[in-house]
Amino acid sequence: MATATKVAAAPTETPARPGPRRGRPLRWLPLAPATVMLLLFLGGPIAYCVYIAFTNMQLTGASSTDFVGLDNFQRAFGDDDFRNAVVLTLVFTLLSSLVGQNTLGLALAALMQRASRPVRTLTGSIVIAAWVVPEIVAGFLLYAFFRREGTLNALLDWLGLPSQNWLYTLPILAVSFANVWRGTAFSMLVYSAALSEIPKEITEAAEVDGAGGLGRFWHITLPMIRRSIGTNLMLNTLQTLSVFGLIWAMTRGGPGNRSQTLPVFMYDQAFNKSLIGYGTAVALLLLLVGRCSRWCTCG
């Protein structure tokens, strides 16, 4: 009988489990300088402004700054001028952002989608030119347009229509129109990009089924760009809430306080009346309004 051969079964080697990465904390090291800079130059001023809002700090006439708690906020809610500024801010935002820029931007985008290339180029250049103009320059241009001896009244006189001092009789409508004129380009660009993403096959199929232009727009176009509508409303609302230079150049919040929105009221209290603590408290309330508007527009 042949000698038995011994077959040594090789033990199965289990792969070694990787140990913990010792260099993992080092991957955050390149972000450390940026984090420090953000905390120092962004977080620091924000924290200091929050502190100022709870003090009676003044630019002039006060030798010391004391902590007053919620007195500035209680004063704001009991101030008739503050409540007037809140109402005017809501009117200004509703007219110029939610209705004006949003509606006109969507209309321009829809019309330019059907227009020829030269018309699209010319219209886009004119609308975007108003957007790239600095805010203070746009304010002076619209001031020259609406003033008593301005362009608008000259056109009305030439047409034989009655004219008036628009910056005195309807100041909040004048600054709202100015903001629409300047900011519609952003909405137009957002909606142009959104409309270009809608497949043509869907609209062509709806047209074959007998849907008219208004029906296709209401039942197909609007539902398919609803995310773009929400994003545009949020960004436009936040931008409109912070408009200051345009209103300051045109009316300075006047006549009286008939066009004094919250940013103008905040500036007037903080720098014209030297009430830094009170003005900063109003700024925090404006920040809260902006946060609430973001929740409302984004759902």
TrEMBL record:
Ranges where the ABC transmembrane type-1 domain occurs: 87-297
UniProt keyword list: Cell membrane, Membrane, Transmembrane, Transmembrane helix, Transport
PROSITE patterns: ABC_TM1
CDD domains: TM_PBP2 (cd06261)
Location in the cell: Cell membrane
Record membrane topology: Multi-pass membrane protein
GO terms classed as biological process: transmembrane transport
Transmembrane segments: 31-54, 85-110, 122-146, 166-191, 233-250, 270-289
GO cellular component: plasma membrane
Record has Secreted as a keyword: no
Family: Belongs to the binding-protein-dependent transport system permease family.
Protein name in the entry: Amino acid ABC transporter permease
Organism per entry: Streptomyces violaceusniger
